[in-house]
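pasting for the record
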Amino acid sequence: MEEKKYLKWYNKVGYGSGDIAGNVVYALLSAFVMIYLTDTVGLNAGIVGSLIAASKLFDGISDIFFGSMIDKTRTKMGKARPWMFYGYFGCALCLVAIFVIPAGMSRFGQYAWFFIAYTLLNAGFYTANNIAYSALTALVTRNNHERVQMGSIRFMFAFGTSMVIQTITVGMVAYFGGGAGAWRAVAVIYAVVGVISNSLSVWSVKELPTEELSSGDMSSGKLPSEEPAKETGRVQGKPEERYRLSEAFGLLIHNKYYLMICAAYILMQIYSATLNMGIYFMTYVLKNAGLLGVFSWAINIPMIAGLLFTPALVARLKGMYRLNLYGYVLGTLGRVGVIIAGYVGSVPLMLLCTAAAALGMSPLQGDMNALIATCSEYTFLKTGRRVDGTMYSCTSLGTKLGGGIGTAVAGWLLAYSGYVGGAVSQPASCINMLHIMYLWMPMALNLLITLILTRMDVEKANEKMRQS
């Protein structure tokens, strides 16, 4: 039976454009906040890394909290859209605040300013906005193919935005005269772009009624049976019950696939954070900071190309499991090639292997939201409880925790290696560390993700429960 279609092409494109907003925040912070703080403000990389790590303690609490709040929300706009819309205004303000640290303030005051603004952004506003944005995948359609399409389109915008920001930011800072004032101007521009794109995304889709979301089999389009489920005695097709935060947490930790997705997503974001420290590798190892934009193209163009074909490949392979696994095998081998090319000193070969790795990693990026929806279905089939908003907390948790850990570790390693902020050249110990950070760490992270994906066949698990 053909699945019912819920969305037009402009709904999918409008939804996907919301990741412009997310990535003007994420890409700017992950790629440039460390070098802004160390080379413009003059802060110590190790202390900044420690502050970022401490900020993640608040993030761990806020993700599940906001996910649970979204699940409990009932408004005319729906459950997730209000959080996505209003949350982003706080994101924009905090982003600008990070890049307007007063020069005349004491050093302690500067560290405190950064920590407060960074924590409010990540643990508060970005969490509310990003979880709501991700959860919309499960709230505006019950068609799994449309979910894959939404995820692919979304990440095309995400990688395209990241590529543009990594390509033009250094030039924009120079255009505005360099220094703190230039960084402030760039942050304001990106914040305005983010507000506009986020607002367009919110109003491009409409959430389905709760009764329709809770009825029947989420992927087959069949009408619900009135037989009670074995595990809980629930009746299918009835609206979900309300539950406490502790209950939501319990539902999550008893879903092994949720834990796998969380682990994979965190590792993916640490991977991105290590590559985003490439500005240091380009500047001090390859001796050309402008190469950051070239490598960004080598990463993001293959990613976007792969995302274009992900929905068709998922349909052809009748699921996401094999596509994701085989893709990450290629991604890991590609990063092995980057290591070899890096030590040989061949930039063209580094770019080629970087592109191959990115192409292999693209399917998981494209179908991640659909995979989480399938993971949410696993909980629904086992317990009869709908926890879409809470389930999608793993995307915000992974983005912030993984990105934060990656940036924090980078700061610690730079400080440990003897990095001198703003220096023309760096000591040999720092150069060796940059090789480890940019070449070896991404390969190791891809290998770990591949191992997780060998166990990530949630689609098969769901099918067995439907047939039992």
